[in-house]
Amino acid sequence: MARGSTRPTSRDVAEAAGVSQAAVSLVLGDKWRGRVSAATAERVRDAAQELGYRPNLAARNLRLGRTRTVLLVVPALTTEFFAGVYTGAARVAAQHGFGVVLYPSPEGIGPARDPFGSAQAALDGVIASSMAADALTAIRGDQLPLVMLDSDPAGSQGAATVNLDIADGVRQITAHLLELGHRRFLHLAADIPSWTFEVRAREIASCLCEIPGTSLRVARAPISFEDALAAAQTALTAPGPRPTAVICDDDKLAAGAYKAARRLGLRIPEDISITGLDDLALARALDPELTTVRLDAERFGEQGMKALLAVLDGRTPPQEDIPVELVVRGSTAPPAP
Amino acid sequence: MARGSTRPTSRDVAEAAGVSQAAVSLVLGDKWRGRVSAATAERVRDAAQELGYRPNLAARNLRLGRTRTVLLVVPALTTEFFAGVYTGAARVAAQHGFGVVLYPSPEGIGPARDPFGSAQAALDGVIASSMAADALTAIRGDQLPLVMLDSDPAGSQGAATVNLDIADGVRQITAHLLELGHRRFLHLAADIPSWTFEVRAREIASCLCEIPGTSLRVARAPISFEDALAAAQTALTAPGPRPTAVICDDDKLAAGAYKAARRLGLRIPEDISITGLDDLALARALDPELTTVRLDAERFGEQGMKALLAVLDGRTPPQEDIPVELVVRGSTAPPAP
DNA sequence: ACGTTCAAGTGTTACGTATAACGCCTCCTT
DNA sequence: AAGGAGGCGTTATACGTAACACTTGAACGT
After folding, report:
1. What is the mean pLDDT of residues B80-109?
2. Among all strands, which nt has the closest C1' to B20 (CA)?
3. Helix orientation angle between B166-180 and B195-208, rounded to the nearest 10 degrees
4. Is the CB of B87 less than 7 A from some atom of nucleic acid strand D?
5. C1' (D15) to CA (A59) span, angstroms
6. What are residue A181's phi and psi, to 5 degrees?
7. How much is the pLDDT for A4?
8. Percent of chain A clearing pLDDT 70 (strictly above)
9. What 3-state class would DSSP assign to A307?
């Protein structure tokens, strides 16, 4: 443990350069335009370099009353999607001198408790994803600037929201299947109370009720391979004519649907079409490759961070949905005649 | 922007409770055993509750000279594995009142630059994974307590290391395939200069050279679906007798190998056996399910954090490798006679 | 009666930084 | 020659917290 010698402070640098601590602060803070001579500034910078000076962030934060750090609340990190959101948010943050600390809500998607105790950082703002109302009010109680990701704009109590245009994606998927000739649908839904999943259900229903002669079954499952497999298998063997197309709330559920179909001896896509939503790496690993909707997770994170920066600047954040893209691959085809 | 009224401080609480600021600090810091009466302590807590007091972390960190925050350097977050490592590390950290901030090395696995500018937090220590030597020395220059994940214990310059027992996993995989009767192998290797991948190559080679009559081809590819597909396809169509088993450095590469095999009209596992390493969700989504080695990413993160806590306490961290587990599924079978 | 001990606090300081307010010297203007 | 205007810095202070050193009053033993 060779950390006996304490880190050099701005005062140490000042002493080494033969100036006052204030001068060091001015020079290193790049605010010395008409206040310090270029020669002195150079001396200060050299001394700082020599000593390996690094400003004490805690002191700076205390002095300035802000931390240039924001919190990103995600339902779980162990998934490509939210990892991408973090990556995008962190990139934009870094460009503006901000850092991002994570709070993975331990209960999965749903209420998050104590988003502040976990990260020992003081925060300038919060980006929160798919959260329940109680966590939202807990955060709002702290009066921190807040941006909500993929949340009901109407229910966000005035917080800025940034959303993917999930509704459009679902419409595209449904239209694609209708165009192929499908009429009997199974919606394999994520069994999670969240606005982003409510939108999917609502949009599928409203698309189908416009078309006469269509039918819709709904099965619910937590987002896990086994649960999806079981739910899909049950729904596909239920009495009545079997659906010819399965619309899944995300790619992981679709992977479960694949296996359920195979267990029932159904060929994909000849006997049954399956669609996902997310376009994870998984989508292309499946055989046949999965028709799905590409969500640009990194862009989502970027937009969230940009919106938060806008709020922090006192500007009104832009309120446009992020477009999504239908990716047609091998898992969809016209139904057998 | 309703943050006009500044947050209450411990002095505000003191005033409200009719005591000194010092008393508030004692009570809320739970150090009042023989110094403050229970009644007064109760009054202070009530006042704090009433005002919604939250200690200013920046001030506390400045005062205490530590932040209870550590940095986790990961090659990329957009993968289940490192997301799991983070989750495990963060869980243990939280149990000890620590926070974890992430630094995803932007270049993927490899050298990391400026691990401190990115996160605006002051740090008590660093957990770094699979990093190149230059980043390691950059960090060591700051004299921060450091734990290395999956790195050459000999090359870590005295930093504590926590490793998965990858070598054992590879031995198990190889032994499993040998036992099934395979003799001609393809090693689909990650094209990344990192100790963890060197171990795989070395171990496979040393296992095979003990057995007479075995042959080994090696193909290299970056860890991406397309690259793995291309490399595997090339290697499987090269002149000479075709390998009957493909050992992949991780599950993603294995997914590429699946597709390559299918393109060549090979059935899995009848015509060719394929193995992975990681046991991602992907492994069970593949058809047939992938025989692989389960790496417990969360436990890995937990052990890393525990080791760092040990270093911070001045104890010597335990130096045992984390066991891994062979998971035999449907992608391996005896070779065709 | 007097010293000792103990509970129950209070006063003060320092952590390292950024900045407002001030001082001094030189040079230019009128 | 007097006054002002920069240029070049310095001094002083505050941010909110934790901890050390101290005070006060009462109880207690001898």
Report:
1. 82
2. C10
3. 30
4. no
5. 9
6. 110, 0
7. 44
8. 89
9. helix
pLDDT at B333: 98
Q: CB of B281 under 7 A from strand D?
A: no
Strand D within 7 A of A22 CB: yes
Per-residue pLDDT at B137: 63
pLDDT of residue B154: 81
**The architecture CATH gives domain B67-164+298-312:** 3-Layer(aba) Sandwich (3.40)
Q: In the CATH hierarchy, which fold is given to the domain comprising A10-55?
A: 434 Repressor (Amino-terminal Domain) (1.10.260)
Query: Average pLDDT of chain A?
Result: 89
Q: Is the CB of B248 under 7 A from strand C?
A: no
SS3 B326: strand
| A203: Cβ contacts below 8 Å, ≥ 6 apart | A166, A167, A170, A171, A174
Average pLDDT over residues B77-105: 85
Q: Which CATH superfamily is domain A69-162+298-320 in?
A: Response regulator (3.40.50.2300)
pLDDT for A76: 73
Distance measured from the CA of protein residue A35 to the C1' of nucleotide C27, in angstroms: 17
Mutation for testing the B interface, residue in A57, A85, A311 having most B CBs under 10 Å = A57
**Nearest residue to A286 (alpha-carbon basis) of B271, B28, B203, B281:** B281
**In contact, B129 and B100? CB cutoff 8 Å:** no
Give the gap in angstroms from C-alpha B313 to the nearest C-alpha of chain A.
10
B30 backbone dihedrals φ, ψ, rounded to 5°: 60, 40
- Cα distance between residue B145 and residue B262, in whole Å: 49
Contact (CB, 8 A) for A100 and A46:
no
- Of the candidates B121, B63, B96, the one whose C-alpha atom is nearest the C-alpha of residue B311 is B96
Q: Could you tell me the distance in Å between the CA of residue B38 and the C1' of nucleotide D30?
A: 33
| A284-322 pLDDT, tens digit each | 999 999 999 999 999 999 999 999 999 999 899 988 899
The chain-wide mean pLDDT, for chain B, equals 89
DSSP conformational letter for B322: B
pLDDT in tens, B225-252: 999 999 999 999 999 999 999 999 999 9
| A79/B79 Cβ within 8 A | no
Domain B166-294 sits in CATH at 3.40.50.2300
Question: Does strand D come within 7 Å of the CB of A19?
Answer: yes
pLDDT category of residue A110 using cuts at 50, 70 and 90: very low
Residue (of A297, A278, A306) closest to A100 by Cα position: A306
Query: What's the pLDDT score for residue A135?
Result: 61
What count of CB pairs under 8 Å joins A to B? 158
**How does pLDDT run across A150-200, given as a tens digit for each residue?**
988 887 777 899 999 999 999 999 999 999 999 999 999 999 888 999 999
- Return d(Cα A281, Cα A299) in angstroms, integer: 17
Rounded CA separation B52/B46 (Å): 10
What phi and psi, each to the nearest 5 degrees, are found at residue B98? -105, 155
C-alpha distance across the termini of chain A, in Å: 75
Sign of CA dihedral B115, B121, B126, B129: negative
Cross-chain Cβ contact B225/A314 below 8 Å: no
CB atoms within 10 A of CB B32: 18
Name chain B contacts of A77, Cβ cutoff 8 Å.
Answer: 77, 83, 86-87
User: Does domain A166-295 fall into CATH 3.40.50.300?
Assistant: no
Instruction: For residue A121, give the nearest of B2, B57, B314 by CB distance.
Output: B57
